[in-house]
Specification:
The protein is mainly α. It has a single domain, classed as Amino acid/polyamine transporter I, CATH 1.20.1740.10. The chain is about 75% helix and about 0% strand. The protein is globular, with a radius of gyration of 20 Å. The two termini are about 30 Å apart.
């Protein structure tokens, strides 16, 4: 919430999207390293999302997965060509609300709320497998902070021509969107504890995880869960592909924007097409979506501090932000989270290696 609001505010007041800030604050050389790392992560993440889309479509239709993968990537490309930014963002954003079925299902299973409340307290010192606990703690933390989200969000504020009167809307969108995502995530974690853990199931496929969302309500809820995951994955695949294009154009200061004609922004158009095409090729190679997710989440955590630090620095700079500068509380809390992000980033790769990517 905090960093989404800050990057939106910086985009509105300073008219600087994230990767223009990265270039200005880190310099061209190191900024280029961050750009390459971020876009490689975008590619891996997009490939995982396309693979997930193909799995959902196969469950719904029974068609061959690779054929569905090609169809999905092609249709997503056509959507970007055919629709303005606002329609893409709002359509997939609103349709993704169907994912709340996971939170509703978790509540319907009547969890022990006292134990749930106790579970909000970290128990690292008491767990039998501290490294495994640490790996999943970092993974969940990273999944809520995927860098492409702030790249896309700050670019979207500029795409929609937000001005200072829109800062209230910026706060509302950042707060509501982040809170809803967190509630759904908590619901999925609760379902893991309520459905899989007592039965000794370690869900290693997307289809297994989705079944938990329908557990109390059977077939109808399963369809809603499948469609919710499908729309979220489609929206996320578009976000990662477009974020890759935004990053390149903003870093090299060339024309960008989904509201521009392709001829007016040729680099941007070529970049998002390349992102989708390469991600589709990675998915077609046979790489398992959940394996790609593990890679993107862990290495995303490593890159995260280099995305969040410049946002915090600019948002707290009165010379740039004027009366819209961070308050003391925002800056202090931002620093605390940046320290946590940095610690998690330093621990991510060692934990992945030591736990063999979270194998129990």
């Amino acid at each position: 919430m905090l960093y989404m609001e800050m990057c939106g505010r910086v985009a509105v007041v300073a008219h600087e999207p994230v990767f223009a800030i990265v270039r200005d604050r880190f310099g061209f050389g190191f900024g280029l390293v961050v750009l390459i790392a971020s876009n490689l992560l975008n590619l891996i993440t997009c490939a995982a999302e396309l693979g997930g889309i193909a799995i959902i479509l196969q469950l719904l239709t029974g068609w061959r997965e690779k054929l569905l993968l090609l169809i999905a990537a092609s249709l997503l490309g056509l959507i970007v060509f055919a629709f303005k930014f606002q329609w893409i963002e709002r359509t997939f954003g609103l349709a993704g609300v169907a994912m709340t079925v996971f939170a509703i299902s978790a509540v319907a299973l009547h969890p022990n709320w006292h134990r749930f409340a106790r579970g909000l307290i970290p128990i690292f010192a008491h767990t039998k497998q501290p490294l495994l606990y640490g790996y999943y703690a970092v993974g969940i933390f990273s999944a809520l902070l995927m860098a492409y989200e702030v790249h896309f969000y700050s670019s979207g504020a500029i795409e929609e021509d937000w001005t200072t009167p829109n800062l209230t809307e910026n706060f509302s969108v950042a707060a509501f969107g982040s809170a809803l995502g967190a509630i759904i995530t908590v619901g999925i974690l609760m379902l893991g504890a309520l459905v899989f853990l007592p039965r000794g199931i370690f869900p290693q496929t997307l289809s297994t995880t989705i079944i938990a969302g329908a557990f109390p309500f059977a077939k109808k809820a399963l369809i809603i869960a499948l469609l919710g995951v499908l729309t979220c994955l489609c929206g996320a695949a578009l976000e990662t592909a477009l974020s890759g294009a935004y990053n390149i154009c903003q870093f090299f200061n060339v024309s960008w924007g989904n509201n521009l004609r392709p001829k007016s922004a040729p680099v941007y158009t070529a970049a998002w097409i390349a992102m989708l095409a390469v991600a589709c090729a990675i998915a077609l190679s046979g790489a398992r979506p959940l394996t790609l997710v593990n890679i993107s989440v862990v290495f995303g955590m490593v890159v995260m501090p280099f995305t969040y630090y410049p946002i915090l620095r600019v948002a707290a700079d009165k010379n740039v932000m004027g009366k819209y500068v961070n308050g003391t509380v925002n800056t202090v809390v931002g620093i605390i989270f940046l320290v946590l992000i940095t610690i998690a980033g330093a621990a991510a790769i060692p934990l992945m290696l030591l736990t063999h990517s979270g194998r129990p």
